[in-house]
Design brief:
This protein is an alpha/beta fold. It is built from 9 helices and 7 strands. A 7-stranded parallel β-sheet has the order 3-2-1-4-5-6-7, with helices on both faces.
């Protein structure tokens, strides 16, 4: 792996993380696969060219785990970390007033604290590689507050804010900071149940007549994002419509959210 461009991906056991791993591996990059799901990581690794990937079982909420696994990965890559992809996240839907307090704490810890820890600890490694990039997975839910997914939406706003702040702070050090803001992606996250409902997130999206964006499209946009100069890459028709409405039709989108999305 030493001397090869290198990307470290959290949430790599499935979904966007797996697709991005495959996309970068096709370009000959060394890929660090990180997740709490060891079986899923092994499945992802089996899809990649032999010898290009390393497996890192870790919880993004654990600062010591971040240090240990990034150290291990960069020792394999000759001290290179070209891209840190802060992608791990969990979804939660349902009325905010009925959401368990433990679930609120868990979503914040994984979706935002984990991203902040990755950025803060990853900074030490990224600054050693000229032209490196921190890539964060935000969401269309970080464009306008999404009713029925309040705490998830709030964490994605936080990721968006952190991305914008670090883009300013780290520019002078040559570290690029970018985010992906996809709409609904066809991943296992959509199979989670909605609080106080028999529906899954997938069921609700289908009932609303919204489209799913293939993970392969997100992976391609991730590749483009780390090459280009766009701060936030908005992906999918739903996300683009939300961006347009939030800017030009704020009253309309507000009324839509009051009706429950």
């Amino acid at each position: 792996m030493a001397g090869t461009k290198a990307i470290f991906i959290t949430g790599a056991a499935s979904g966007i993380g797996r697709a991005v791993a495959q996309r970068f591996a096709r370009e000959g990059w060394a890929v660090g696969l990180a997740d709490v799901d060891s079986a899923g990581l092994s499945e992802t690794a089996a899809l990649l060219p032999k010898g290009c990937a390393s497996i890192h079982v870790m919880d993004v909420r654990d600062a010591d785990g971040w240090v240990e696994e990034l150290t291990d990965f960069t020792e394999r890559t000759g001290d290179r970390l070209d891209v840190l992809f802060n992608n791990a996240g969990v979804a939660l839907g349902g009325p905010f007033g009925e959401t368990d307090l433990e679930d609120i704490e868990r979503i914040i810890a994984i979706n935002f604290t984990g991203v902040a820890l990755g950025a803060r600890i990853g900074y030490f490694f990224l600054r050693k590689t000229p032209g490196s990039c921190l890539l964060n997975t935000a969401s269309a839910a970080g464009i306008y507050g999404t009713s029925g997914a309040a705490i998830y939406s709030a964490t994605k706003f936080a990721v968006r804010g952190l991305t914008e702040a670090l883009d300013g702070e780290w520019h002078g050090e040559g570290i690029r900071v970018r985010s992906l803001m996809p709409g609904f992606i066809d991943t296992p996250l959509l199979d989670r149940g909605v609080e106080a409902s028999n529906e899954t997130v997938r069921d609700r999206v289908r009932r609303a007549g919204l489209e799913f964006t293939p993970v392969e499209q997100v992976a391609e946009q991730a590749w483009q994002a780390v090459q280009g100069d766009t701060l936030h890459t908005v992906i999918g028709k739903t996300a683009k419509r939300m961006k347009f409405a939030a800017r030009w039709l704020p009253g309309k989108i507000r009324k839509q959210m009051r009706r429950g999305g």
